[in-house]
Amino acid sequence: MRLLSVSDDGSFVQERFAKDSIPPYAILSHRWSTHEDDETTFKEIAEGIYNNEKPGYKKLQFCSARAKVDGLRYFWVDTCCINQSDQNELSVAIYSMFRWYQKADKCYVYLADVAKESALSKSEWFSRGWTLQELLAPEKVEFYTRDGVWLGNKSSLEQQIAEITKIPIEVLQGRSLSRFTPKEIFSWVESRHTKKAEDKAYCLLGVFNVSMLLDYGEGEKMAFSRLYREIENYVPGKCSFLSIIYYLSTILV
Questions:
Q1: Which of 26, 47, 58, 194 could be cross-linked to 75 through a Cys-Cys bond (beta carbons 3.0 to 4.6 Å apart)?
Q2: Average pLDDT of the residues in 160-186
Q3: Which residue has the higher pLDDT, 130 or 252?
Q4: pTM reported for the whole predicted model
């Protein structure tokens, strides 16, 4: 796992850690900009050449500052900690993502489209597929506006979050996901969107604690069919035939 830290000269540095030696860290949850050039990239950090005027750089500054306040030297940001040009590394990261969020000491949700709490329900963060696991996995999740103003945490905002996401409050309070049926969990992602069609299924791998080969190009229907099979293999009887028919019918409409 790669983590970021800040060097003595104020620049961001990537450090890689073995699974059994990962230090305490904070993790960022955010919605990627619709213009990918706005994000600070893995390559830019690795080469030490990046544009501090980018909106993505502001996210790094925010996460770094929050981590420092919380006494954490290291932090993780997906745009800069995953070499997305390496397909193998990207696959490993997707398989590991739920656990990385789960193990984080703090998760900071940066809402670039929110200026005040009254706008929370309209944030696109709640409509994205990957942010589902980023909400569910960590114990400590804090929400901030685009200016870094604290809005609340998963506990203090649980009623609002439940109304926005249709996720039961007991889930937000930490009840085990194994207590819920696949049909119930699929309903939480049904109205969410991902840039790649297959990611709507892949973003649930960690939620169900299963793994399968990633095959971009197979389409959403096939990705979900394979996901159902993996769930059934992992916990026989957990995924009924009727559940499969139900969900596939919703994505074929």
A1: 26
A2: 93
A3: 130
A4: 0.91
